[in-house]
Write a structure and sequence with these properties.
Radius of gyration: 17 Å
Largest sheet: 5 strands, parallel
CATH superfamily: P-loop containing nucleotide triphosphate hydrolases
Structural class: alpha/beta
CATH topology: Rossmann fold
Shape: globular
Helix content: 55-70%
Order of helices and strands: EHEHHEHHEHHEH
Number of domains: 1
Distance between the termini: 14 Å
CATH class: Alpha Beta
CATH architecture: 3-Layer(aba) Sandwich
Length: 205
């Protein structure tokens, strides 16, 4: 079974993926952040490095999905290949931070990859307001995230909301995380697990 967590920067995807992997005994596949050679450069100069960054993420996510398919195990994935293509890349393009030529090249590459991968059995979307995202980003204190623009986060949030409204690739669970803290409050984690249990049970009906 393939379960994936979607959500904006700072919504709590990695934390929840780790906690769920521990609870259920699932394998966790995390976003390739620490080994990403473009991330620091991207936040310093988004226009120059946007295409490079998005292609790196697309390639990394494509490999993850193939690995998940071949593993035969239940895997929880931190962010999906669809978010790269339908949220992050078009957002950069619309903000004039990626050229039309680069975006079209990127999207044709995604469309080729999309034919070779399967969507997750369950998608968990962590819905968060921009103030919540900013609070979480500041709390984790990654240097390269200090320069993230508020308008960038806001536009990403808008795209997430629009994408989720039209998501039809599989089962979808939406969790509003504005008043939740899975790490500090076990009851919040239990609340999420109960919702996931109900969805997983439905997968086996």
């Amino acid at each position: 079974m393939h379960i994936a967590i979607a959500g904006n920067i700072g919504s709590g995807k990695t934390t929840l993926a780790s906690l769920l992997a521990n609870h259920y005994g699932w394998n966790a596949h995390y976003e390739d952040v620490d080994d990403n050679p473009y991330l620091n450069d991207f936040y310093d100069d988004m226009q120059r490095w946007s295409f490079n960054l998005q292609v790196f993420f697309l390639n990394s996510r494509f490999k993850q999905v193939l690995d998940i398919r071949d593993s035969g195990k239940t895997v929880i994935q931190d962010r999906t290949i669809y978010e790269d293509a339908f949220i992050f890349a078009p957002n950069l393009h619309s903000m004039s931070l990626m050229t039309t030529r680069d975006f079209e090249n990127y999207f044709s590459l995604f469309q080729l990859m999309e034919k070779l991968v399967s969507p997750p059995d369950l998608l968990i979307y962590l819905k968060a307001s921009v103030p919540k995202l900013v609070s979480q980003i500041q709390k984790r204190g990654r240097d390269y995230e200090n320069t993230i623009r508020l308008d960038y986060l806001t536009k990403l949030n808008e795209r997430y909301e629009n994408w989720v409204k039209t998501y039809k690739l599989g089962k979808l669970l939406i969790i509003d995380v504005d008043n939740l803290d899975f790490k500090e409050h076990p009851s919040d984690l239990s609340f999420v697990i109960d919702k996931i249990d109900a969805e997983i049970h439905g997968l086996f009906k």
